[in-house]
Amino acid sequence: MEKLALLSVSDKTGIVEFAKQLAELGYTNVSTGGTYNKINDAGVKVMIVSDLTDFPEILEGRVKTLHPKIYGGILARRDKDDHMHQVEDYKIPLIDIVAVNLYPFEQTMLSGASLEECIENIDIGGPTMVRAAAKNYEHVVIAINPEHYPLILYHLNKGNVPLELRMLLAEEAFTHTARYDAIISRWFRNKSGEKSIPKHVILAFDLTNLEMRYGTNKNQTETGLYKLAGTNFGITAVEQYADNGEWKTIAEKADFHGKALSYNNLFDVEVAIDDVVRAVAELGGITNAIANKHGNDCGNAISSDVDEAIRLSTSGDPISSFGGVRAVYGVVDEKAAKTIINGPLTEIILALDYTKQAIDILLTKKNLRILKTNFKDESNDRFKYRIGMDAGHLMLENKVYDLIDEKKLKVVSGDLSFYENNKNLIHFGIITCQNKFSNAITLVQKISEGKYRQVGFGAGNANRVLSVEQACQLAQNNFYNEFEELLKTDEGKNLLSQTLDASIDIIMRLPEYKNNYVKKKMGELILISDSFFPFPDNIEVAHKYGIKNIVEDGGSEKDEIVFSKAREYGMNMLVTGIRYFRH
């Protein structure tokens, strides 16, 4: 009986050699369109599929293989007499090998092609042939990956492809078509603009080549980094020995500068990117620098100068910044690079780009990972997903970048123009507060117009009072240290001499002046809470440290008691009506 191999591939890698060796093994190659031309032009004997079906390609190639002579030949079970009688009665030739891969929908979609072009790159006959061959794996060999051609030929030369390999090839085939359909399904939903929660969520992820050092802990050595199928992987890292400082995606297998990344590193990088995306979306053309560690922004600053933004981002908490990720929405130059390597230990630097001089300086730190990204949401998806595979569930919620709904704003204590007079600083503070695990408190400072920094925070506490205490204590310590540094400058000495009574011993008055300096600075800050204050004790702690400005979402049963306490202390308090939890 004649042996047939059906070859119809978009990725034509190795297909000519595969067809040639199949022909030498006595197979008749049957092919379609471009695959037929490729094989035929190489001088390998091949039959056009329409000669087998006795039916031409129609509808501009939309229908080529959808025919009983194709699917009967693939799906017929050789161990069932009635199947074999039917294919004989209808003169359907048996097809023993199917080598198919699909129209490049993913590549077409990612290229920014038109709607029509994307639609025309949705394969119909291909997935059907792949699934049919995989279903009948006991009798048909399915090959969707050119890398498997040599292995299949090896076994064919020995006599037959073993059942265990056929099953693995079938598993790969169904995974291939499921992934293909998942990408198309997400694309259609995103194009439709539908905003409701989908009834079914089909996601596909691709294992990257990144070799992680370990997972969350060093004894978790079985790890893998997957990217969502149908998306670009937007982070790149410098390769240590590449010509001209070549950049390659971290999903590639390459010899990158610095230590291998771990799960924790990647988590912090992901969080840092999300944090910068929020800041840029809300505040526009800014230079934003973030120090992130264990998923929390321990430093955040905005300035028109990259170097200054980096310095300010770690000035709020240099201890927590030690060993973390620095994310910079800007181009790191020579000066900024020196600030990075001379500041608190940085495990990873992530930026829009770097100058050549900056790269040379950063490369002197042998363990430093140097990454760059466009700081864009590459998923093209309005939802974020949290998978709990141990519990067998997936949680889905819409992404939210909206910080303020001005219709919900309400000044419940103090100056009614508090929001209008401090809008940008409040927005910056909410962004930094969103970027921490709840219960989160952030204290932010306006240094000058368009120049802001975080000076204190508390996060991840089940007790909100503790977060308020931690944030205020950190800010207070920062200002005490700032005062000591100020005294070493000419400006500080002049300021001191003008303020202190010359007739009184300067040493005696120094603690008083220091406390007044810190009190003044604390009173200029804005405290942001990621949720409401359930009791007035939070306000009492803030008052103890001299805080005079508070932003919270409101909604507690004891709101009026809390608001009254703020009025009692003469505080400005703004209620946003929006919660900013992060878990």
Name some characteristics of this structure.
Rossmann fold, Cytidine Deaminase, domain 2, 3 domains, 13-stranded mixed β-sheet, 20% strand, elongated
Written description of the protein model:
This protein is of the alpha/beta class and 583 residues long. The chain folds into three domains: 3-192, Methylglyoxal synthase-like domain (Rossmann fold, 3-Layer(aba) Sandwich); 226-372, AICAR transformylase, duplication domain (Cytidine Deaminase, domain 2), CATH 3.40.140; 402-575, Cytidine Deaminase, domain 2, CATH 3.40.140. 42% of the residues lie in helices and 20% in strands. It is built from 22 helices and 22 strands. It has a 13-stranded mixed sheet, sandwiched between helices. The chain is elongated and about 110 Å long. The protein starts with a strand and ends in an 8-residue tail after the last strand. Mean pLDDT is 85; it is low at 239-243.
Summarize the helices and strands and which ones pair or pack:
Elements lengths: L2 E6 L6 H10 L2 E5 L1 H9 L5 E2 H5 L14 H8 L5 H9 L5 E6 L4 H6 L4 H6 L4 H11 L5 E3 L5 H10 L4 H30 L12 E3 L18 E3 L7 E3 L8 E3 L13 H21 L3 E7 L2 E8 L2 H10 L2 H4 L2 E9 L1 H9 L3 E9 L1 H7 L6 E4 L10 E6 L4 E6 L11 E4 L4 H4 L1 H12 L6 E8 L2 E8 L5 H24 L2 H10 L6 H19 L1 E4 L7 H8 L4 E4 L6 H10 L3 E4 L8
Parallel strand pairs: 1-2, 1-4, 2-3, 4-5, 12-13, 13-14, 20-21, 21-22
Antiparallel strand pairs: 6-7, 8-9, 8-14, 10-11, 10-12, 11-19, 15-16, 17-22, 18-19, 18-20
Helix pairs in contact: 4-8, 8-10, 11-17, 12-14, 14-15, 18-19, 18-20, 18-21
